[in-house]
Specification:
Elements (H helix, E strand, L loop, with lengths): L6 E4 L3 H12 L4 E4 L4 H8 L7 E3 L3 H6 L6 E4 L5 H10 L8 E4 L5 H13 L3 E8 L1 H7 L2 E6 L4 H11 L2 E2 L3 E2 L5 E2 L2 H30 L4 H11 L7 H11 L1 E2 L2 E2 L13 H12 L4 H14 L1 H11 L10 H34 L5 H7 L10 H11 L10 H24 L4 H13 L6 H12 L33
Parallel strand pairs: 1-2, 1-4, 2-3, 4-5, 5-6, 7-10
Antiparallel strand pairs: 6-7, 8-9, 11-12
The chain binds nicotinamide 8-bromo-adenine dinucleotide phosphate.
Nicotinamide 8-bromo-adenine dinucleotide phosphate binds next to helix 1, helix 4 and helix 6.
Length: 483
């Protein structure tokens, strides 16, 4: 009998094709299937020729070619296709077999699918896969969650094909139950939106306020990439600054209307649902929305526009301030993202390993950076850390950057340059470190117009009071609103 495959994959598009080549290169035999079966033959006779692939022309054929417990991974378009495929695969599987969804699924779908697949006596894994085409081929960041009993069976394959950081540590570990893997992938994407926006604000200030050339900006990003801001996104921004087409920087010929596929929006909506102030990622999503209103902005510029004031003073000192603003904003963004994961863990009963998550993002994915080591260190020191800003390393770094950060936000506001993430991050920082916020007035207003009650500073928490503010209302307090 010919050798059975270690794993089967459905979906030979860009991600699937590259991921199975990665698996095969690590010594695994992989069975492959695609809805349009010509792609199976094309792959097995093309990029997969003379390699350990088994081409299947039906789901039954794919399943029959697998070692038990069978592992069937799907890398197809997220959404209805995943549900349809799960229902097509299930009748061919036996108890203990594993279905893995490696697409960009929304975490509530993965929670539902885990329950559904487990109700059939099978195991389900919803795994975030990050790193795009190249990552899939050479080593992605993998964030698997779902049925914990599946992990021992897929651990070797997943960790072998994932990206590695120092000392060969894999950028893949078990994230948690149900939709935890896809939740963490969603937050990763939200953080990616934030990282891209803060870098874009730095570029905007350098170009429009300081009047820097692309060569100068290239050199600044190159310098920044050697220190605390060493990251994939800083590196590619440096290279983008140097990229020319017909002697002109290509970036200036690209329309300033940003696209988005929805994962940043999901992150923002989830934060609103869970009551987490995820302001930086939220502003990043809104900044993309505003950018996409290009035609309207062109008209508005004619009515409302006025020239951006130019910088006067010590340029190099201000560039250092921009670096401070970028670094401090980045710390705030990750702090907020981790608070979101913490709240979700409480809400959904997940036991998330926060340091492990930082390590999973350390290589292979778009937000990979040296900075993530410090996050891992912070959670290794205190796994129950409520906010990264309270870890001594980050506390010190933000305090060091604070003056420069304030300077950049202040000057950008005066000059008329939008800095939605730099400024919202600073407002969050100021709010978080403020013992007494003006929410006492909010509570008074709520009680005034809606009898929503308030707690008092001179009474224990949990005791609620209502005042008849005008003398015309009654003493009845509203019970239908939460504080
Ligand atoms: P696509 O998202 O473009 O999906 C194409 C694949 O889905 C093809 O194999 C197609 O089969 C299959 N498919 C569709 Br569409 N509907 C199907 C159905 N009802 N039943 C069975 N198969 C169906 O592929 P991709 O860009 O490789 O991405 C795969 C997943 O990975 C997605 O969830 C994506 O969001 C995620 N992801 C992508 C990237 C990236 O950089 N592209 C990065 C990270 C994650 P066909 O050939 O018969 O049409």
């Amino acid at each position: 009998m010919s050798k059975k495959a270690d794993i089967g994959l459905i979906g030979l598009a860009v991600m699937g094709e590259n991921l199975v080549l990665n698996m095969e290169s690590k010594g695994y035999t992989v069975a492959v299937f695609n809805r349009t079966t010509e792609k199976v033959d094309k792959f097995v006779n093309g990029r997969g020729a003379n390699k350990n692939f088994i081409g299947a022309h039906s789901i039954k054929e794919l399943v029959d070619s697998l070692e038990k417990p069978r592992k069937v991974m799907m890398l197809v378009k997220a959404g209805a296709a995943v549900d349809a495929l799960i229902d097509q695969v299930i009748p061919h599987l036996e108890e203990g077999d594993i279905i893995i969804d490696g697409g960009n699924s929304h975490y509530p779908d993965s929670i539902r699918r885990t329950e559904y697949v487990e109700s059939k006596g099978l195991l389900f894994v919803g795994s975030g896969v990050s790193g795009g085409e190249e990552g899939a081929l050479t080593g992605p960041s993998l964030m698997p969650g779902g049925s914990p009993a599946a992990w021992p069976h897929i651990k070797d394959i997943f960790q072998n094909i994932s990206a590695k950081v120092e000392n060969g540590v894999p950028c893949c570990d078990w994230v948690g139950e149900g939709g935890a893997g896809h939740f963490v992938k969603m937050v990763h994407n939200g953080i990616e939106y934030g990282d891209m926006q803060i870098i874009s604000e730095a570029y905007h200030i350098m170009k429009e306020y300081l009047g820097m050339t692309h060569k100068e900006m290239h050199d600044v990003f190159d310098e920044w990439n050697k220190g605390d801001l060493d990251s994939y996104l800083t590196e590619i921004t440096r290279d983008i600054m140097a990229y020319e087409e017909d002697g002109e920087p290509l970036v200036e010929n690209i329309l300033d209307a940003a696209g988005q596929k929805g994962t940043g929006k999901w992150t923002g909506i989830t934060a609103l649902d869970l009551g987490v102030p995820l302001t930086l990622i939220g502003e990043s999503v809104f900044a993309r929305c505003l950018s996409s209103q290009k035609a309207e902005r062109v008209e508005a510029a004619k009515v409302l526009g006025s020239p951006i004031k130019k910088f006067e003073g010590d340029k190099q000192a201000f560039i250092n301030n921009i670096k401070d603003a970028l670094f401090a904003s980045k710390i705030v963004s990750y702090a907020q993202g981790y608070v979101l994961m913490n709240e979700a863990a409480k809400e959904f009963g997940w036991d998330l390993n926060y340091g492990g998550i930082a390590l999973m993002w350390r290589g292979g994915c778009i937000i990979r950076s040296v900075f993530l080591n410090k996050i891992k260190d912070a959670f290794d020191k205190n796994p129950a850390l409520p906010n990264l800003l309270l870890d001594s390393y980050f506390t010190d770094k933000v305090k060091d950057a604070e003056q420069g950060w304030r300077n950049v936000v202040g000057q950008a506001v005066i000059a008329g340059i939008p800095v939605p993430t730099f400024s919202s991050a600073l407002s969050y920082y100021d709010g978080y470190r403020t013992e007494k916020l003006p929410a006492n007035l909010l509570q008074a207003q709520r009680d005034y117009f809606g009898a929503h009650t308030y707690e008092r500073v001179d009474k224990p928490r949990g005791e609620f009071f209502h005042t008849n503010w005008t003398g015309r209302g009654g003493d009845t307090a509203s019970t239908t609103y939460d504080v």
